[in-house]
Amino acid sequence: MTTASVAPAPRVFADDRAPRWLRGIFWANLVAQIGIVVTGGIVRLTDSGLGCPTWPECVDGSLVPTERQAESWHKYVEFGNRLLTFVLAALAIAAVIGVWRWTMQRRAAGQSARRPIVLLALIPLFGTVVQAVLGGITVLTGLHPATVAAHFLVSIAIIAGVTVLVTRANEPGDRPVTVVVPRPIRLLSIVLLGSAAAVIVLGTIVTGSGPNAGDASAERFGIDQRMAAWLHADAVLLFVGLTIGLLVAIAVADTPTTLRGRTIHLLGITAVNGAVGYTQLLADLPWALVALHMLLACLIWVAVLRVFLATATRGVAADAPVGQAAQSISA
């Protein structure tokens, strides 16, 4: 009697993923970090950057807006953004306490701590402290475009760290690290990531050169905004071309379905944001469209990071088939 052959399942080491409740805290941190970027953008786009003209007080002698202020409704927009910082701080502390509790549980069970996740969980807390200080400097410098841009770019760096945290927490382990795509595709994903960073940096220059610089009296970069917008658009076209090139390379190579799905998702968000970007220029930069553009830019940044992270797996045996190994970890 013959027996049917069964393809061996990928060998996965002990599932050391963070518990669901902890992953939920990490996801909440990611959403909140994106939210603070958008609300900070609304502050800038509505000329409310000096709605609270002092720091850490909103106005001399008061931590909260007062009726005697001349900033009208702008003070409430700026103060609301400041309040959201406390939400970020609470979530950041929850992430640190949560990962500490999980580590203690693992040690009680005779397991070692997942050190990368412990370190990554500190990013929201330290990032929030840095942002609070930088926010004060931004106000005290009268919304100088360099400090405003730095304020935004630090948020982008924090979002990157928390995106990695969310991904790593959902992986079954830290070792071994297995690259699951051909080397050219891996390199292309790195170039794509650098291109996305360049687009974001140029975007801050466009905003800091135009009418939406945070306050009607705020200093601008002194760069022709049309020229800055052209450079930004050129960088976007390069990014789109690299994304399409990556998708073509994925289609003809043996790559995980997770990577293909994430790349298609990235291309779709990019197309939508491109349409929003051109619409806002034609409509003379209405603040609502610019805020939507910023939100989509953050989502693109997360998406391109997830594309890069999908080119390798952790905690899956190196001898597992490429496609099965990638699919053994949920997206």
Could you describe the 3D structure shown?
This protein is mainly alpha-helical and 331 residues long. It has a two-stranded antiparallel ribbon. The N terminus and C terminus are likely disordered.
Spatial order of strands in the largest sheet? 1-2
Rounded mean pLDDT is 82
In this structure, how is the largest beta sheet organized? 2 strands, antiparallel
- What's the multimeric state? single chain
Low-confidence stretches: 1-13, 318-331
List keywords for this structure.
331 residues, mainly alpha, 10 helices, 2 strands
Strand and helix layout:
Blueprint: H1 20-45, H2 74-108, H3 115-120, H4 123-140, H5 145-169, E1 177-179, H6 183-209, H7 225-252, H8 257-282, H9 287-309, E2 312-314, H10 322-327
Antiparallel strand pairs: 1-2
Summarize the structure.
This protein has 331 residues and is mainly α. 66% of the residues lie in helices and 2% in strands.
